[in-house]
Amino acid sequence: MPVTPWVFPFFLSFPVMVMVYGCMAALLFCNAPFTDNQMPFLIIRTGRRNFMIGQLFYIVIAAFFFNLLIAIASGLALAPNIVLSSDWGIVLKSFANDPQSALGTSSLVITVAIAPAVLDYFTPVTAMLTAFLLMWLVTIFIGMVILFFNVVVGKLSGLIAIGVLIFFSYFSFYLGNLLFGGITYFFSPLSWCNIYALDFISDGKSIPSPGYAVLVLSTLIIIMGTVSVIAFSKKDMDYQEWRD
Fold first, then answer.
1. Residue 100 burial (10 A CB sphere; 0-12, 13-18, 19+)
2. CA of residue 225 relative to chain centroid, distance
3. CA-CA distance, 134 to 36, in Å (whole number)?
4. Which phi-psi region, left, alpha or beta, contains residue 146 (left: φ > 0; alpha: ψ -120 to 50)?
5. DSSP secondary structure code for residue 30 in this structure
6. 35 FRET partner, CA 20 to 30 A, in 19, 98, 104, 233?
7. 202-239: per-residue pLDDT in tens?
8. Which residues contact 186 (CB under 8 A, 6 or more apart)?
9. CB 241 within 8 A of CB 157
10. Does the pLDDT at position 108 exceed 60?
């Protein structure tokens, strides 16, 4: 049976995929602020503040294309058995209602979990846009965390900070959820890239709402970006340290 290409919203449905996604985004921004041999001359011509503002724009734009690539690749992975439709399609609906139906062939491994409630609540286009927005914001957040700590604290401290957040996202899904319930999701920004970690469909669980996730992510991104610009403008930077 041909399958519709709307699998991107379920790309991070397994907790281990959130860790993989977080590590990929951290690798993309690991050396923020991004420097090369032309950095001193560029700063002289543009000024420190403008240089850092450019860094912030780069993170936002790079995060957009990073997730766009994932969205496109998730659909192309189904080629050549793709059919375009405004509906979820019989295959995704079958997997949602009976996940075991996909395991009839031993060589087939299903790496996404599709909840029937999600298919009932979202249209395919709405789900794609919602998942993309959440993943875009979380990717920007990852870049801002690395930039903020590298500038304010020191080189490599950003990777340590984001590594802790990646670990906590995995902890929230399993042990944290078991010990404390959904309350741990309120303190795990990386978990909010997964639509299953947010209360789109009220079912009595104590988990963050989509509005809460967007508001907190946006606020933290703005604060860290602003502080990074101010700190970089006033702090003496060891250029040789950043070159290495």
1. exposed
2. 17
3. 31
4. alpha
5. T
6. 19
7. 555 678 888 899 999 999 999 999 999 999 888 776 65
8. 207, 208, 212
9. no
10. no
Residue 100 CA to residue 113 CA, distance in Å, equals 11
Is the confidence at residue 7, as pLDDT, over 50?
A: yes
d(CA 210, CA 193): 10
- Judge contact between 50 and 57, C-beta under 8 A: no
Number of Cα atoms under 13 Å in the Cβ half of residue 10? 21
Contact 199, 208 (CB under 8 A): yes
* Side chain identity, residue 180: F
Give the separation between CA 186 and CA 213, rounded to whole angstroms.
8
Residue type, 208: P
Q: How many residues does the chain have?
A: 244
154 CB contacts (<8 Å, ≥6 apart)?
none
Q: Which two tokens stand for residue 166?
A: 């990646």
141/241: higher pLDDT: 141
Place of tokens 């899904």: 173
The rounded distance, in Å, linking the Cα atoms of 186 and 141 is 15
Please give the share of the chain, as a percent, with pLDDT higher than 90: 34
- If phi > 0 it is left, if psi is from -120 to 50 it is alpha, else beta; for residue 212 that is alpha
Q: What is the maximal distance between C-alpha atoms in the chain?
A: 64
